[in-house]
Design a protein that fits this description.
The protein is of the alpha/beta class. It has helices at about 50-55, 60-65, 85-90, 110-120, 125-135, 150-160, 180-195, 205-210, 300-305, 330-335, 355-365, 370-375, 395-405, 425-440; strands spanning about 10-20, 30-35, 40-45, 70-75, 80, 95, 165-170, 200, 215-220, 220-225, 260-270, 275-285, 290-295, 315-320, 325, 335-340, 410-415, 440-445, 460-465, 465-470. A hairpin with a 1-residue loop joins β11 and β12 (about 275-285).
């Protein structure tokens, strides 16, 4: 008998429009889409275009958890998301959300996965299988909130995969993964897809998306491109759609040297249950651009958190501008060093975009001369009165960047600043970093994507197993 299962439509969307409660314009406009069983689909587009909103509609989270005006209909394996409760839909579709931390509920990694196993009546043997597959076995007894961002993301992916859904929706699944973990996840997804699973990938990472078999582009809430052309991501015109072409050249940089020592780190060690940093020593010159690389959980973020006193030195010494870090007040350090967190959700807490940026100036006792300039620089002026919590994660990243950089600190630390940014925002950030580097600022960036910074980087530090080396 001929297998015709690939002809079955697992997702059918008809005339879908959606506006969030209180929004001035629709997030989605007249979406019509049919996805067959076994397709591997990439959904692409600039920040705020509606990608995540569409994903929430394809799981029933909209309309069941977000209020707003919904028109049209969405069918998941034939089930109308309006007429069926979410627990009737979630057995068919699993989702990794962009704000993955909102999917962590339990104090131990094994409890996160076990909850899904027990909730879906799955054999307990799956715990060992999925833990091994996602390389989580050494982390099972750890608290998820104490893990690196990449490790947290792997925990959520494991808790989804263990339920074996027919449809898998992943919203920026590589945002926190190192290169080895990205390749590992890709292998898992391609294996699942080869065995009939439908994979929907929402991403700015075109190098990862190129393995998909279908590409959808959303702009301003509408599908503007739907193609199965395998060469689509190599075409220059996609940059006009807000998408990074695979072969885009981020440039090269002639290494500069600095004779003025600004940061000295000597024999820095740090331990939480296990050693995280082991006798780290490094020198950073005034005006240098330092790129810090390393696998998830290697200690990169732990290291830089010492530089602005978010973590207290346990052993060793840190000297900044000739002064021991212990002699700086927290306010003095905050004026001297700007810090962009890996997850923008950790850095946004005010009621409007303008208040978010003004808070930095008020806290540091600075005047507001830079406020309007910063809003304009980060394309936020027209959104100054909106709540920062209403934006996409990529737009929140821009707000977090603006709220830190408005104070013009002498030293800037950015932990994965490109994570959620679209192509235009990435180019804009690189140009901004180039300008402040040329003005003499010292910049330290942690990243799993070194190519973005080729035109700026003076030196690269590698963190591995809590130790540092220079590449």
């Amino acid at each position: 008998m001929v297998d015709l299962s690939w002809l079955i439509m697992v997702i059918e969307i008809e005339n879908l429009s959606f506006s969030f409660l209180g929004a001035k314009k629709p997030a989605l406009k007249n979406i019509n889409l049919r996805i067959k069983r076994g397709e591997f689909v990439a959904i692409l587009g600039p920040n705020g275009c509606g990608k995540t909103t569409l994903a929430l509609c394809m799981t029933g989270i909209i309309p069941h958890f977000f209020r707003g005006k919904l028109e049209g209909r969405v069918l998941i394996n034939g089930k109308d998301t309006r007429e069926n409760e979410i627990h009737d839909i979630i057995s068919d579709v699993g989702i990794l959300m962009q704000d993955y931390e909102s999917q962590l509920f339990f104090p131990r990694v094994d409890d996160e996965i076990r909850f899904q196993i027990e909730n879906f009546g799955i054999s307990s043997k799956k715990m060992e299988e999925i833990s091994k597959e996602m390389k989580l076995s050494p982390l099972l007894k750890r608290n998820p909130l104490e893990l690196s961002e990449g490790e947290k993301q792997r925990v959520i992916i494991a808790s989804i995969l263990v339920t074996d859904p027919d449809i898998l929706i992943l919203d920026e699944p590589t945002s926190q993964l190192d290169s080895e973990e990205r390749e590992h996840l890709l292998g898992i997804l391609r294996h699942l897809n080869a065995h009939g699973k439908t994979i929907i990938l929402i991403t700015h990472n075109t190098h990862f998306a190129r393995y998909c078999s279908r590409f959808l582009v959303i702009r301003d809430g509408r599908i503007v491109e739907d193609t199965r052309d395998r060469g689509f991501l190599e075409k220059a015109h996609i940059s006009d759609l807000g998408i990074e072409p695979i072969n885009y050249n981020w440039g090269n940089h002639k290494i500069s040297t600095s004779n003025d020592l600004q940061i000295t780190i000597r024999d820095l060690s740090y331990k939480v249950e296990r050693p995280v940093l082991k006798k780290i020593s490094a020198d950073i010159g005034n005006g240098e651009f330092i790129l810090i690389l390393g696998k998830n959980g290697s200690g990169k973020t732990t290291l830089v958190k010492h530089l602005n006193k978010l973590l207290k030195v346990q052993k060793g010494r840190i000297i900044i501008n000739g002064k021991g870090i212990e002699d700086y007040s927290q306010r003095e350090i905050a004026k001297l060093i700007g810090f962009i967190f890996q997850n923008p959700e950790h850095q946004i807490f005010r009621n409007s975009v303008e208040d978010e940026i003004r808070f930095t100036l008020d806290s540091l006792g600075l005047n507001e001369d830079n406020l309007n300039k910063t809003l304009e620089l980060f394309n936020l002026k027209e959104y100054r009165d909106r709540s920062p919590h209403a934006f996409s994660t990529g737009e929140k990243q821009r707000i977090a960047l603006a709220s830190v950089l408005v104070s013009e600190p002498d030293i800037i630390i950015l932990d994965e600043p490109m994570t959620y940014l679209d192509f235009e925002a990435k180019k804009h950030l690189i140009e901004y970093l180039r300008a402040i580097k040329e003005s003499g600022k010292t910049i330290i960036v942690i990243s799993h994507y070194p190519d973005y910074y080729k035109s700026l980087t003076d030196r690269r530090f590698i963190i591995a197993d809590g130790k540092i080396s220079e590449e």
